[in-house]
From TrEMBL:
It comes from the Bacteria. It comes from Paenibacillus campinasensis. SUPFAM superfamilies: Metallo-dependent phosphatases (SSF56300). This is Metallophosphoesterase. InterPro entries: Ap4A_hydrolase, Calcineurin-like_PHP_lpxH, Metallo-depent_PP-like, Pesterase_MJ0912. Residues 3-189 form the Calcineurin-like phosphoesterase domain. Gene3D superfamilies: 3.60.21.10. PANTHER family: BLL5683 PROTEIN, METALLOPHOSPHOESTERASE. Belongs to the metallophosphoesterase superfamily. YfcE family.
Length: 242
């Protein structure tokens, strides 16, 4: 059987990313896919881009990876742009939209937020029709066929749902989890590139990491929106929630 570790939403949090990569290696998983948002929110997007490039076989574009490329007068975004530098911005600009492959007879599609856009947000509690639309193909994807298995990041909430005979999952977030304050990723196991039906499994892994070190990294960096970011790291709750 083949195993793929799927990570997403690192958001410049290097203590979390390092802990996840160490955990993946300890399990003997050699192939890692990343579903975007390498940068933003956290302080060290530059290091995250370099580490993801060095460790991940395939990487897709997230919303932060996309809008950071645009010229802006917003100082918070300019801070992240300066930290990244032009070479890394050029790397982000070249990231593909999605990953598609057969595994154990299932057509698997992985993307950041939806098969249509890196900006379309779908939560696990949204209406059924909206969640079912995540199996659809689009002009953004490599094919227009419906996926049997669809996986994504973006919402920072790890979950698994079986919908009309199909499987929808979210990896959760490595660097900015908003369901509990531990890094999250998924291991997908099956027969890669096989159209023959076979066993297929998914394992969610929660990895504790040194949150206070991540807090100190953020404080030392002088990053924007510091207090909100620290609160999210420590509580695993989105800053706008009551």
């Amino acid at each position: 059987m083949d195993r793929i570790a799927i990570i997403s939403d690192i958001h410049g949090n290097i203590p979390a990313l390092s802990a996840v990569l160490d955990d993946i290696r300890s399990r003997g998983v050699d192939v890692i896919y990343c579903l975007g948002d390498l940068i933003g929110k956290g302080p060290d997007g530059d290091i995250a881009v370099d580490m993801i490039q060095a460790n991940c076989e395939r990487i897709v574009r997230g919303n932060w990876d996309d809008f950071i490329l645009s010229k802006t007068e917003e100082e918070a975004l300019r801070w992240h742009q300066r930290k990244l530098g032009q070479k890394r911005l050029d790397t982000l600009a070249k990231l593909p939209f999605c990953i598609e492959f057969y595994m154990s007879g299932k057509w698997v599609r992985l993307f950041h937020a939806s098969p249509r856009s890196v900006y379309e947000r779908v939560q696990p509690w949204d209406e059924l029709e909206k969640r079912l639309s995540l199996f659809e193909g689009s002009a953004c994807c490599l094919s227009d066929r419906e996926a049997d298995v669809a996986g994504y990041g973006d919402v920072h909430n790890a979950f698994l749902q079986h919908l009309d005979g199909k499987t929808l999952f979210n990896t959760g977030s490595v660097g900015n989890p908003l369901d509990m304050p531990q890094a999250s990723y998924v291991i997908l196991e099956g027969r890669y590139d096989s159209r023959t039906s076979a066993a297929l499994s998914m394992q969610w892994v929660r990895v504790p990491y040194d949150i206070e070190r991540a807090v100190q990294d953020a404080v030392s960096s002088g990053m924007p929106f510091l207090d909100n970011y620290i609160e999210e790291l420590r509580t695993g709750r989105y800053r706008s929630r009551s």
